[in-house]
Amino acid sequence: MNSRTQAVYAGAAPRARKSRWPARLDWLQSASGLVLALFMWGHMFFVSSILFGKDAMWTVSKAFEGYFIFGRSLPWLVSVVVAVVLLLLVVHAMLAVRKFPISYAQYRAFRDHAGDMKHGDTTLWWWQVVTGFALFFLASMHLFVMLSRPDQIGPFESADRVWSDHYWVLYLVLLFAVELHGGIGLYRLAVKWNWFGGAHPDVARTRLKTLKWALTVFFLALGLATLAAYIKIGIEHAPRAGETYTPAWVQPAGAPVVK
After folding, report:
1. Which of 23, 39, 74, 225 has its CA 20 to 30 A from that of 100?
2. In a domain, 103, yes or no
3. DSSP 8-state assignment for residue 49
4. CA separation for the pair 80, 158 (Å, rounded)
């Protein structure tokens, strides 16, 4: 006779088996957040190639279109990558919203609790909620543009979108939201899963927080410099908005050089 049957005969209610799904969903949320944060950093380095000149940015964008492998651009390759990232963003948001305050009473309880504790990590979690909510809309807008217009990525094309199409407002807000959210998320993942805890977790947490803010400042500075570069090119190119960029070494002989 097993323990469950013995409990029934003894008159005690059988102990309910705990579901493993909350832990699984938590792990999926962490994994999807990690992938998105690493993608965010990689994406920032790619778009910041404009700081090395138009040819550098053109080379990076064409590399993702398979230009140097297939001998011609295949923009739909970019759409495939963007679609996967967009799907991952939606999944991550659905998993994360489980922990958001969904009523004013829950928000007030959290506010009072956070006010009494005055705990730095609790405040960071709240900022992650706020920026995460904003990102669901801002990042989705940006990804949809990349998904539907993958051929409009390049020195002139991107600069025209930033300046002539007035996307610089969206990108400025998106920059701060994504860098704060991603940086806080990676810090909380490291603490939650004790990646670098070692024998002195409190010391490791302090160091992780310092590293988190250093990385946030670095990527914000890089992002602002990159956005400023696109704005500058966009202003200069505004009279010819819509013209695509082709490096001089790719243009056919005799063609006018585009600068």
Report:
1. 39
2. yes
3. G
4. 19
